[in-house]
Amino acid sequence: MKKTLGIILSLTLLITGTIGCAAAKESSNVESTSTAASINAVSVNYDSDDYYFDWRNGSYKTIGLNGSSASVKGDGLAVQDSVVTISASGVYEIIGTLTDGSIIVDVNKDTDNGTVFLVLNGATIESQTSAPINIKGAKKSVILLENGTKNSVADGSDYIVNADGEPSAAIFSKADLTITGGGTLAVTADYNDGITSKDDLKITDGTLIVNAKADGMVGKDSLNVKNGNIAITAGKDGMRSTNETDEGKGNVVVQNGQFTITAANDAIQASKLVQIDDGNFNLNSGGGYPGKSISSGNNDFGGRPDQNATSTTESTDEEESKKGLKAGQGILINGGNINVSSYEDSIHSNNDVAIKGGILTLQSGDDGLHADNNIFIDNGEITIKNSYESLEGTNITVNGGKISASSTDDGINVNNNQGVLNITGGEVTLNANGDGLDSNGSINMTGGTVYVDGPASNNNASLDYDGSFSISGGTLAASGSSGMAQAPSTNTQPSILMYYSSAQAAGSTIALKDQDGTSIVTYTPSKQYNSVAISSPKLSVGSTYTLYSGNTKLVNVTLSESLTYLSESGVTTKPQNAGPGGGGGKGPGGNRPQ
């Protein structure tokens, strides 16, 4: 469906109004309608001490946990009751069980800039009133999970905290924190977060199992994962980076690993950038795909919860965001196998989204892939099994890759009247109950292949644009209703727009062949249809072609111009009151060609 028609409010802010085939959800305000360059990748530096090493070959100290007490020996260590305090950098082996106590790291980083290594070697640490591991101060701390060991930390539901509300996690760090090693760490956080660093949080190896009342993992300045096996169950966000103000901070960058995240809110969220280079992800947010669209007013799906079908493309402070991947500035996917089941958008950016690789399988109660600004798809495989709108943005560019998407409303929607849907390559297959390709601005196609299994209802169309649809390359086959049917309006390669006298049954193959019987386009819609728009670089003006329905010959046509209107009786004229490139303009039913 058509979303909005932007009008100028100021030099940088647009406010939207409604336009289109039928009333639909409103678009969010946008700051820019120009297509910017794709997102630049972030490089994360890992130090040598971010990885496992043979700590036994050097000097180390041992902390023995003995139920309600602990024993230590050596400089930089102190014990009071069941609290062990480390005050100097070095390597500390931790073994045994502590039933109600803490390991506190409190190193003056102005006089000691070394790294504190906490080697968990079969350690169980529990605390009822504070963080079991509390890193109050250090230049850097590393939790090393000894290979083959099982370790755990758990806290109670009622903390004693300072004026800043700290500590706020079962593993809490005021310093840069790295977790590595070939062991297992189970974190149970009944008070708040599972693992939190107020600086950088890095994970380079290990098996982490986090069950948290609030967020699973938080790295304020950054959350970076190079490898590991991570399972998170979170009462709020799964993985998160929160720094909104400092340049270059607030990112979540994943290079590899195995991730299973079930989060009541967002599965992975960053104030700035979410970047995924590789890895395997199974993400469930907000209870997962609810089995129907939460946005659509059609198909008996009702409106958004408590909002009567108004837009929630941007969550307010009062609303709980329930998205798969979410970022304030950008989402960049370079690779990986990403499966998302989300109550709201599966992938959502308040600015840009760039897909440069990977295999994405998405199920969403709202949009499959949403950007408040630009979407770039250069490569990868994107399957959107369920969505309200499959792709939505101010500008959308498809340069490559493979997209297969189903939606209760629009398949691809450019929601600004200055926006452009630009298709230069790739393969796009859409099954849309609303408009298939929908642009409040224009469409430009220079390559690629697009198949649209469009709407059966006449208040929508397989192609819907307000500006122009320029086509100079690529293959297009778009079937759907006839009431508002459109075809490319500016053609340097020929197109046809066929109107059928009666609805064609679902599964009826559309075939266009040349005089030699060579197939130009073959497509089989899964829904009934009354029209089809076809364009191909194999078509040429002056040549004759035959359109078939299955094996039944319908009509011969000799192309005499760049856009030819066709019925079962032969070449016809453009419908009265038609918009650019086709029918429409008079509501459901439109005006059929005579």
TrEMBL record:
PROSITE patterns: PROKAR_LIPOPROTEIN. InterPro entries: Cthe_2159 (IPR025584). Residues 579-594 have a biased composition (Gly residues). Residues 287-328, 570-594 are annotated as: Disordered. Keywords: Signal. Pfam families: Cthe_2159. Residues 1-24 form the signal peptide. It comes from the Bacteria. This is Carbohydrate-binding domain-containing protein. It comes from Desulfosporosinus nitroreducens. The lineage of its organism: Bacteria, Bacillati, Bacillota, Clostridia, Eubacteriales.
